[in-house]
């Protein structure tokens, strides 16, 4: 295992962005040995549920628990939960019978895949009426704002939205 020294300003809440610059004065920083990150396989998790609005809450709970287990920072979990919630709600409302969410974490990139099994073309339910302007339609804008990359794919098996979210780098002491 390779070890390198990093200067870390001492703060009660930790420091997410260590520097290699010397400390400004005595007692203001300490040097700690931090193992270099290893290249490992990505962490994976998936959940498959009925594409119903009440199941989106379960998907969000699964996502929150898994990301906490993986050690993802709370602020990043909140962004991921907003993304999963918006995409899950869309899949439950417009998709077919099943909603699938796949999460993978590699380095500081969290990939979120949300898939439905809606037939092509996307059919609106019978009795569908347009909603007043401004009542909905902001979900994908929120996702686009939070994510670093958004890709939508459509096939005969349904729709999938893939989102990449860059996470906060871990603190040098291993905590988040």
Q: Pairing-aware structural class of the strands and helices?
A: alpha+beta
Mean model confidence by pLDDT:
76
User: Briefly, what CATH class of the largest domain?
Assistant: Alpha Beta
N-C termini distance: 22 Å
Q: Please give the share of residues in helix.
A: 25-40%
Spatial ordering of strands, largest sheet: 3-4-5-7-6
Described by strand count, sense and barrel closure, the largest sheet is: 5 strands, antiparallel
Give the percentage of residues in beta strands. 25-35%
State the domain count.
Answer: 2
Number of helices: 3
CATH superfamily of the largest domain, called what?
A: Histidine kinase-like ATPase, C-terminal domain
Overall shape? globular
The string of secondary-structure elements, in order, is: EEEHHEEHEE
DSSP, total strands: 7
Radius of gyration: 20 Å
Low-confidence stretches: 1-24, 28-34, 123-128
User: Which topology of the largest domain does CATH recognise?
Assistant: Heat Shock Protein 90
